């Protein structure tokens, strides 16, 4: 699939970079000289590459746990209570983090409540 991985300025016909094209000493059947891609091709390739990069990043983010967060507020300014930010995606509105925290709260609360009765 040369269309999705081709560098923006790779050959118009086969998607191989100019330098690599020149290094092919024995031209195979269907050989052609490197030719500059059209503006439209360059634009399309750039967009495809960007889309692939974004998809990869989204997939990587999806693979994380989104189970821990931290408060952005600084102890130096008590009036700034900050936001609880997901450690994996950096968002204060991470739905997966919220779900994990709700679950942890359900486990923690009865425990802290019951503890005095253990002694
Ligand atoms: Zn070519
Ligand atoms: Zn998250």
What does this structure look like?
This protein is 45% helix and 5% strand. It is mainly alpha-helical. The protein folds into 2 domains: 62 residues, no CATH class; 50 residues, no CATH class. The chain has a two-stranded antiparallel sheet with strand order 1-2. It binds zinc ion (ZN) (2 copies). The site of one zinc ion has 7 residues, from loops.
Can you give keywords for this protein?
single chain; 4Fe-4S Wbl-type domain-containing protein; two-stranded antiparallel ribbon; mainly alpha; about 120 residues; 2 strands
Q: Would you spell out the secondary-structure blueprint of this structure?
A:
Elements: H1 2-5, H2 18-22, H3 39-63, E1 69-71, E2 84-86, H4 95-114
Antiparallel strand pairs: 1-2
The protein binds zinc ion (2 copies).
Organism: Actinacidiphila acididurans
Protein name: 4Fe-4S Wbl-type domain-containing protein
């Amino acid at each position: 699939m040369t269309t999705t991985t081709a560098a923006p300025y790779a050959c118009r016909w086969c998607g191989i970079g100019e330098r690599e094209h020149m290094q092919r000493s024995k031209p195979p059947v269907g050989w052609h000289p490197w030719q500059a891609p059209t503006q439209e091709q360059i634009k399309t390739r750039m967009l495809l590459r960007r889309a692939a990069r974004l998809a990869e990043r989204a997939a990587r983010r999806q693979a994380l746990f989104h189970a821990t967060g931290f408060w952005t507020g600084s102890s130096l300014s008590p009036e700034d209570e900050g936001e609880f930010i997901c450690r994996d995606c950096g968002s204060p509105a991470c739905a997966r983090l919220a779900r994990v925290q709700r679950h942890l709260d359900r486990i923690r609360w009865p425990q802290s409540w019951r503890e005095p009765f253990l002694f």
